[in-house]
Amino acid sequence: MNKTILITGSTDGIGKLAAIKLAQDGHQIYLHGRNSDKLTRVIAELKTITGNQSIDGFVSDFSSLTQVKIMADNINNKLSKIDILINNAGVFKSTESQTEDGIDVRIVVNYYASYLLTTLLIDKLKASNQSKIINLSSAAQSSVSMGLLDGSLTVSDQEAYAQSKLSLLMWSYHLAKQEPSIAVVALNPGSLLDTNMVREAYGKSWSSADKGADIIYDLAITHLSEDIDGKYFDNDKGDFGLAHPDASDDMKISTLINYTKSQIEKLL
Ligand SMILES: NC(=O)c1ccc[n+]([C@@H]2O[C@H](COP(=O)([O-])OP(=O)(O)OC[C@H]3O[C@@H](n4cnc5c(N)ncnc54)[C@H](OP(=O)(O)O)[C@@H]3O)[C@@H](O)[C@H]2O)c1
Question: What range defines the domain where residue 170 resides?
Fold first, then answer.
């Protein structure tokens, strides 16, 4: 059956490749990008490649939570339900390491934006009788410092990225418990996949970007998607696996979620 699928950060990299695979099956696809012209080009490109005309998109720069809220409002006005939300947009290196609000850009784009978007779209996900959320984490996971979340601490690009990705993972586990009707999975799509992010960060890659797109597709649609709720899929191992120990610590998760809520309120 055709599904309504929203994939953030799908103007490039593994998000775009996953969108192509999902569009080839005839689903209603909503792309997202930060650049309006690029988004329009990619929508047209995907329609041509896949023959699927049910492809549309939303623009929002996730380094601004105000823009995330506007995008969520637009989606809520336009869509009656969302079957699959893929929180894929992410950044590692950036010319500006902090947003205009003085918070690390990885924390805002990779974690706060996904948290806020999902929270604002939760009723549309509940309107589907079998909804799923796939959160793009990483093998890079590092204990989260509240100072990084509130902008009082600065760390290296790698450390900020790893803290943003563990934040997203810890929130995924929390969300899975909080919303039993929605299946929530956190995913490391594979390390050093050949995308812009990896080329800019490391100047080399270990695997093709298709490896990441294929596992997103599988967790979204195939038999692998049937038992994903509250789990972490580690595509370096090709199986569900154990995440960083902090993701199993309920006290740490609770502290993170409370702090996240208060910071997002301040930023809106
Ligand atoms: N590649 C890997 O090896 C790897 C490993 C582990 C996890 N991941 C995760 O997988 C996800 C996709 O990464 P990728 O490797 O495919 O990277 P990518 O090729 O750089 O694609 C990132 C996507 O996010 C969008 N994006 C970046 N900053 C944004 C912002 N401020 N607002 C809105 N959208 C923004 C990009 O838009 P533009 O098209 O405008 O650039 C692009 O569509 C990320 O969450 C990443 O952390 C990747």
Answer: 4-267
